[in-house]
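Researcher: For the annotation table, I need structure tokens for Glutaredoxin-like protein. Please keep the output clean. Sequence:
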Amino acid sequence: MCSYTAGTRMKMLLFQGNSMQLARSSFGLFLRNCSASKTALPVLTLFTKDPCPLCDEAKEALKPYKHRFILQEVNITLPENSAWYERYKFDIPVFHLNGQFLMMHRVNTSKLEKQLLKLEEQSAGG
């Protein structure tokens, strides 16, 4: 069900404005990786391009946490990601956690840890 919903939303994005496209695209990335399980891992989206040495450094910094999220990479230089390119072309790497902005430029491990713990506590309690 999640994949169908995300695919449908992604197709509809072609006909909408940039701000709505950004919100739905981010949500669509989240939906594409969701699961019916209550213990589904959060989705950490990395907005990147090739080459991106800072993105490579960021991925290295994320390795100790990789079992706690699903990493979704979005290449902002692809035509279908032009809205993300306009928004983040000077700021990559940029990270969203479950569709919400988290950090940019470098990995802030304390911020990441805090948000992951918050999501894990919510998942355990719900």
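Researcher: And a one-line annotation?
Model: Residues 43-124 form a domain with the Glutaredoxin fold (CATH 3.40.30.10).
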